[in-house]
What we know:
Helix content: 40-55%
Number of helices: 5
Shape: elongated
Strand content: 5-15%
Order of helices and strands: HHEHHEEH
Amino acid sequence: MIVDMRTLPVSAEPIACCAPLSAPALSADEADATAKLFSALGDPARVRIVNLLATSPGPVCVCELIEPLGLAQPTVSHHLKKLHESGLVEREQRGKWAFFSLKRDAVEKLAVVADLKGACC
């Protein structure tokens, strides 16, 4: 089954966020939002997609992710949809192709949330 990327929502609301994991305490809402953010990255293919997008000089077409990931187009589209829904990536439609890039504010939030320097040990 080939997923038509044009049927995906054009913009997803980012996850309401988040306090650093090193914060003195997290509210239930902050913990929930943080868990959703990490859930979006809870699959190795999604982590690799984020890596490919982070190291790309510009937006990347879905078709350019299939070979490096070694996954079928519907699977790549599924993972991109999950990342898009989480607010980590943005999607731009160019004709029949969808191009993806990381959302700067989401990446900055992720960096802050994951920062555990000096928290323990």
